[in-house]
Amino acid sequence: MVRTDLKMADGRTIFYYDNSPVTRQANDNRPAEDRPGVGELRLDLLTNEWVSMAAHRQTRAFLPPKELCPLCPTKPGLDSEIADSNYQVVVFENRSPSLAKPKTGWKLPANNGIETEIVEAAGHCEVICFTDHHEGSFGALPESQIKLVMDAWIDRTKEISKLDYVEHIFPFENRGEEVGVTLNHPHGQIYAYSFLPPRVEKMLAAATAYKAMHGKPLLTDLIAREIKDQVRIVCENAEWIAYVPFASRYPFEIHVAPKKFVPDLAELSEAQAAAFPAIAKESLQRLDGVFGIDMAYIASWHQAPVRKGREVLGLHWQITSIRRQPGKLKYLAGSESAMGAFIMDMKPEQSAAQLREVKL
C-alpha cells in the first residue's frame, strides 16, 4: 500500500491510497473556504450520555445527482472533494464534521449535575471513498480493492489513535437511503470520539466483568460457541468467522470476527488482514442474495477504546439490515426507540439458514 498526502483548498488533508506507486500531485483549485466552527458537547443528565450539537451540518450535501457527486474524481464541470481525475481509495476530513479538533488544553468535564460545563465537540471525522466508480457497492469490489480499504482502515486507526483528545475510533458504512445515506457513492466514514459512546461503555463493562469471572475475553467464548453450535454460522475461512449472533436484534444481522482475538484494526496480523476481503465479500453477497435486491445496511467496526479495555474488548464487524421482507422494513418503534429493548420476529438460526442457502 502506498499513501500520498496532499492539501485541499480549505486546508484539510486528503490521503490517497494505492496498491502500487502512483504520482499524485493534482491541485485542489476550488476557492478557499472557511472551515466550520466546532460544535458543542452537552451532557444528558438523564442517561449520563454526551450529545454532540452540530448545527453547521444542516447545509451538507443531500443526495446530489451523479454528475454533481462530491466523492467522484474531479472532471470538466465538476470540482469535487477529490482533485485528481482518478483514485483507488481516498480518505479526507469531513467537510461538515460532527466532531473536530478542539483548542489546546481541552478535556472532557466531569459530571457536575446541572452545572456540568458545555465544551467543544472534540474529535475527528473522516470520509473514506472505497472506489472512484459512482455505481456499485463495497461487497461488489474486487478482493484486492477491499484489501486496500482494509489497509486504509488500519492506517487511519493507527494515526488517529495518536490524537490526545481521541478515546474511541469507529469506522462504519451506511448503505441505502433507508438507513439515512445522503451520498450514493460507495463510501464510509470514521468517527473518532473524545468520550466513550454509550454502546462502547456497555460492551466494555460486559467484557470486563466476563474476563474477571472466566479469565478470557468474552468474544473468544462467543466465537467458540458458534463453532460448536454451527447453526448460526454464515461462512468462515482460516482467519475469520461470519455468524448471526445468538441474540440478534435485526432481521438480518451478521457479525464478522477474527478467530484469534485482537483489540482493534491496528493490531490485525498480516494474515488476518489478507483473509478479510474474501469473507467480507461473501457475507455481503449473501445478504444481497436473500431477496435478490440491494439490501440497505449499516456496517460497523466495533473495537477496543484507544486507551482502555484492550485486553477484554475484541474487534468485530457488525452488519445490520432493517429489511425483513422485500417490501417491508423493521422500524425501530416504541420498545426499541424509547426503551432500547429489541423484539425480534425471526430467530437467528432461521436468518442464518436463509443466508447460507443463497446461491453465489
Task: Explain how this protein is built.
The chain is of the alpha+beta class. It folds into 2 domains: 2-196, HIT family, subunit A, CATH 3.30.428; 200-356, HIT-like (HIT family, subunit A, 2-Layer Sandwich). It is built from 6 helices and 16 strands. It has helices spanning 143-160, 198-214, 218-229, 270-289, 334-339, 348-356, and strands at 2-7, 13-18, 40-44, 49-53, 89-93, 119-120, 123-129, 168-175, 187-193, 233-236, 240-243, 252-258, 297-302, 316-321, 323-325, 328-329. It has an 11-stranded antiparallel beta sheet, sandwiched between helices. Strands 4-3-6 form a 3-stranded antiparallel beta sheet, with no helix packed on it. α1 packs across α4. The relative contact order is 0.12.
Q: Stretches where pLDDT falls below 50 for ≥5 residues?
A: none
CATH class of the largest domain: Alpha Beta
Mean pLDDT equals 95
SSE topology string: EEEEEEEHEEHHEEEHEEEEHH
Number of domains: 2
Largest sheet: 11 strands, antiparallel
Brief descriptors of the model:
360 residues, alpha+beta, HIT family, subunit A, 2 domains, eleven-stranded antiparallel beta sheet, three-stranded antiparallel beta sheet
